[in-house]
Amino acid sequence: MNRRDLLKLGPLALAAAASRSSAGQIVMLPTAPSEGGSPHLTPSAAGDINLRISPVTVELAPDRILSTIGYNGSSPGPVLRLKEGKPVTVHVTNDTDTPEFVHWHGLLLPSEVDGVEEENTPPVPPHGSRTYQFTPTLAGSRWYHSHAMAMSDLHKGTFTGQFGFLYVEPATNPGSYDQELFLALRDWEPFFTTAMVDMDENNDPNAPQPEKPQVLNTAPNGLEVTSTTYSINGKALGAGEPIRVREGQRVLFHFLNASAIENRRISLGGHKFQVIALDGNPVPNPAPVDCLFLGAGERICATVEMNNPGNWILGEPTDLIRNAGLGVLVEYANQHKQPQWIAPSTLIWDYTLFASKTTGPAAQPGSGPVQNIDMIFEKIPGGGPGKFNTFTVNGKPSPEFTLHQGQRYRLTYRNRTDDAHPLHLHRHQVELVDINGKPTSGLIKDTIVVPLYGRASVEFTANQPGLSLFHCHIQQHMDYGFKALFRYA
């Protein structure tokens, strides 16, 4: 059985438009709901925000309502809007029966508040609470989510609805746009299968594969996680309020791939995206593209000039996935036409399109020559208990590496698997300096997708003492060995 057969088992039909369901009770008074669906929370005068972890329902469509765990009565949780350089206190209450961790993805935080068990962050106890205090120092689009281990339990960790945008407003230069939207791409109702179901690659037949083994492992594939149910901001295509625009507007989109399972694409027929930031960080070379590609955990900020009146579909280019929910309608004012879908001209994604036109690292180097750390990633099909696929880093599950304060490091990711992996290093920002042998510079990120059988190199300066977790942002891969711990000497 392949992915197409799986999707035929139960795709959501395009539902009649329906009003957005209530986002649930918000502990603090929110600002006006965003056009993108989730309410916004800003700190009180005392700099406080309250989050509550509890069971929630998600109405994907009038005839499709899910039960999961979320924040403040909804999934996605509220958009947390913070100010760059302004301290904030987040009070988290856990109304569930299991310990939880809230990770502030993309922020430079001490390990004790990063929200990660491996870094010795204290958990939020069952039916208890915990307070996080930090100062956001990086403006831009970040996010927050559960960092609990799930293993074989598909009702834990990022398989649940515990995720939301965290936006750090810059101290200066707020940008020029007429409307701002926060859109989270998501899959639901995960299940196990041994089918090779990945449809998340770069679709470039000429892409180099420098790490492809001469002899491939032909063992039967072990259990993987997949899904056939999708949404944007908790609504399936056609089941929520459309995005309403006017001709001549410039719309700023903040996209997040909140999937626990796969990388994703998104396209808007009849329009181009002007990519201005990756993982919340401005790119050196803003550039137009027809289609965006987001690894699990990645964010892309892009503007769209609304200059093509009509009604359009913003969604995943793969028809079966889009029609199973991963899309939203975009309606121009005073237009009474059937929604149109136009496939993008290409699905190929190239980070270097947005990079500096000069090569060489842009970040301030650390002390001494750059130290290289090779990281080789391999998959053992059916190698774990219950015949789950397992993963190794340099031949071991979950190894450790030692860093020295102030030293500049180059991590060379060698992906010897048949998956594209979104790789995330906590508590640091990395600069992409090479992708499949193509030198580049100026792209500062926290998550990098390494293509199947591909190679990428990133550099960073070790300036965040404490424990730092590295892992693939696909939950099952992380749980079954695809992670490492960096500790400072």
Topology record:
Elements: H1 3-8, E1 40-41, E2 48-61, E3 64-71, E4 79-83, E5 88-94, E6 102-105, E7 129-134, E8 140-146, E9 163-169, E10 179-188, E11 191-193, E12 224-226, E13 229-232, E14 243-245, E15 250-257, E16 264-268, E17 273-278, E18 281-289, E19 291-294, E20 299-305, E21 311-315, H2 319-323, E22 327-332, E23 367-380, E24 390-393, E25 400-403, E26 407-415, E27 421-425, E28 430-435, E29 438-445, E30 447-450, E31 455-461, E32 468-472, H3 475-479, E33 483-488
Parallel strand pairs: 1-4, 2-5, 4-9, 10-15, 14-22, 23-26, 25-33
Antiparallel strand pairs: 2-3, 5-7, 6-8, 8-9, 10-13, 11-12, 15-20, 16-19, 16-21, 17-18, 17-20, 21-22, 23-24, 26-31, 27-30, 27-32, 28-29, 28-31, 32-33
Descriptive notes:
There is one protein chain. The chain is mostly beta strands. Helices cover 3% and strands 42% of the residues. The protein has three domains: 151 residues, Immunoglobulin-like; 123 residues, Immunoglobulin-like (Sandwich), CATH 2.60.40; 122 residues, Sandwich (Immunoglobulin-like), CATH 2.60.40. Strand 17 and strand 18 form a beta hairpin. The protein is globular, with a radius of gyration of 21 Å.
